[in-house]
Amino acid sequence: MSAARPTAPSRTSAAPGGRRRTARRRAAAVVLSLLLAVPALPAAAQPGEPGEAGQAGRPTAGQAQARQSLRAPVSDENFYFVMADRFANGNAGNDGGGLGSDPLVSGFDPTRKGFYNGGDLAGLLERLDYIQGLGTTSIWLTPSFKNKAVQPEDGSAGYHGYWITDFTQIDPHLGTNAELKQLIDAAHKRGMKVYFDIITNHTADVIGYEEGARTGYISKDREPYLTAGGEAFDDRDYAGGADFPALDPATSFPYTPVLEPGEEDLKVPAWLNDPTLYHNRGNTTFTGEDSYYGDFFGLDDLFTEHPRVVDGMKEIYQAWIADFGVDGFRIDTMKHVDDAFWQEFGPDVLEYARAQGKDEFFMFGEVFDTTKSFTSQFTTRNSMQAVLDFPFQQAARDFASRGTGAAGLAEFFAGDDWYTDADSNAYQLPTFLGNHDMGRIGSFIAADNPGAGDAELLSRDRLAHELMYFSRGNPVVYYGDEQGFTGPGGDQDARQSLFASRVPEYLDDDLIGTASTHAADNYDAGHPLYRAIGGLAALAKKHPALRDGAQQHRYAAEGAGVYAFSRIDPEDQREYVVAVNSAETEQTAQVPTYIPKRRFVQLYGGEGALKTDQAGTLTVTVPPLSTVVYQSAGRIPHSKQAPAVVLSAPQPAAEDNGRMEVTAEVAGGSFYQVSFEARIDGGEWQPAGTDDNAPYRVFHDVAALEPGTRVEYRAVVLDNGGHTRPGNVVSAEVPQPKLSMVLPAEGSRVSGQVEVSAVAAPEKPGHEVTLERRIADGEWTVIGTDDSSPVYTAFDDVAGLGLPDGTQLQYRARLDGSVSDVRTVATGDRIEQPDWVTAAGSFNSELGCSEDWQPACEQAMLTLEEDGIWRLTADLPAGRYEFKAALNGSWEVNFGAGGAREGSNIVLEHDGGPVTFSYDHRTHVITAG
Prior knowledge:
single chain; alpha+beta; 8-stranded parallel beta sheet; 6-stranded antiparallel beta sheet; 28% strand; disordered N terminus
């Protein structure tokens, strides 16, 4: 589950063997994981003298151990992501799921895109040849558990699999548990794996509230949780521990949970029917605290901080591993679940799977964000194996579809170091071009290139797939992309069936590379994209370095044009040069390599063999919107000795104060790998990650350490001849947390009780934040302290101050030695309204605007009403959108999440139908609901 203009102009657990981890042991494990896998801290470097050269694998006393860059068991898969209901109908007898013929009961209506259309597991089984013909090695199924067939409030059905009621049974619309086992066994016999899409964040919408259905969110600071005895507490203080306060459904929550008669025991396993195991705080707005605690459009949000929920989720999914041989999980809505949950769930489930003989078991999460400093936290700080590479999706679209500069790709791949730690890196990330939520790559290409002919659209589509298959990561093909599927948007508009459709909206789609329509079956193995994808997979299989070899940046044109990189197998030592061209004209580039005066043979595209000059430069010519690949006929010359390596002073990363950027400068011009180690307060040295491409660095995670803790770093370089050379030792101290104000919005007008809030990075349950106010240029005064994470709040009674309108107030937050930014506001309700306000976002074209993100589009303008609030109600198709408030028809003044000027985009997860946008100029906050 889960559109984006750039931001505008653990608890106690049952371990295998019966042990349970206490909170104290859990904390120790987190600190150890920091040593093993994370970035570094702020501070004062203490350089030592670089050491003498040595041999790989035999470090001298005081020298770091040279290691090869990690390749996890899963760094060479080709995924095929398929929605079972939309792939093939192998058994018409299960179309209604045994619920009768009424679509509003059974959920089956093949003429409506939001209902079951008839696909099933039997259909998948019948078409395994088709799937495998693409070079697929792993099938990834959307959630297939039994769903609430219809949620009347949403006007649609659970065909997508995200409204689960029974986590132990396959949805009867899709088949039976036995049919799933048959499918998995058949795939295994062919050498293919099967991955399940799973959910830990929520269940179907079963719980209601006495106070009303799908109500607005109530924060923990306004109404904290209460124990069964009536005592207020912060759940984050107990997350990751063995104990959790007893709760009373009638008194412990801001909303009182209720169940409809007949649904008291609807969910399976039975523990899911306990309403105290849910957050019960109302609907999320997908920002701040409520993104963790709020309901997704009424879906029951699980209390994942509670140890019973953690243990229960582990039990559910461990059973699917043991009983059905599932090979891995894609995990839905990962960023909406607390960190402590993942720090226990991930390692425990992985350990269990390996105990069942699943040595290549692999889990990756959905973290819908394009910022690597954030997405990488889940593989470093939170101990998960991988996340879906949303940043890659954006970079690939920008390059192949929008024709943006090649330098953007260079910058993108350089950021891969955020993922490097002792047990994971970017090579194991699943990469993709589109999906069932955001939309298809064909849709993006058509939208980005209006008026382009089919030949250009096909070339751009192929180019995007070439970039995905030849660069690092595990490529994911979304079913139907191989047949040139498009569609007008995401969500339901990106879920067309491969079998002949009766959905009117799908019949209007123009497919790429074919004259076919959705009125016919589309399993054409001769489709140019099907053949191209199969060919890419075959080439990577024949030359494994193209799948998981070390990736080296080589060349980037200044504008649209060639981006070139090398792939190198450290053992074979042959160099592959890949050059992709986003320009609409032929481009020639001078690409540096490690091998002078050698022949490079043509593997893909291009014309014949080439030869490097004396400096190792390869001159390549790339046709428009195309890719070429060359392989060196010889191996990279061995270095005679390892080069010098010097560590720079570690610095806290600007993007994440809980991680330390540690950079190594390496002299020389060949293939090197740099291994980093860290130790805390003079303890044992532990690996912190190995980087196999420049810039050589890690972002060591120190979020769990106390400020002021001393951390030392050292590194050793390994050359391609097996020689090593250690570097100097540097040190830093863990910095103070970085505080940022959330409310009130800068420049807003305030009156009555003012909500004043801040967040801390890195976040820790033990923080106690003091919030202060000053009047004009007076002294700072404490208005309150808060230890309830993740948002720290106090309420300032401005009305009681007796201040005249227009008086300047300032607010800030303090935590130990850290002080936040300052928010400046003015008292009073009288404000000067803008001339007009626009809800500018990724849905503007759906409103009739010429394109998305149009601040001057009349159809997206709000109307000022008598209560001083600007509003616009519009019909939008289902999908995931992003938006901001733009004032006076331009991006000069705009407000994003939390009313912040130039703030981040606001996310709207919409099920289709009317939506009202509201903007309050006093707070600069714009909402949709």
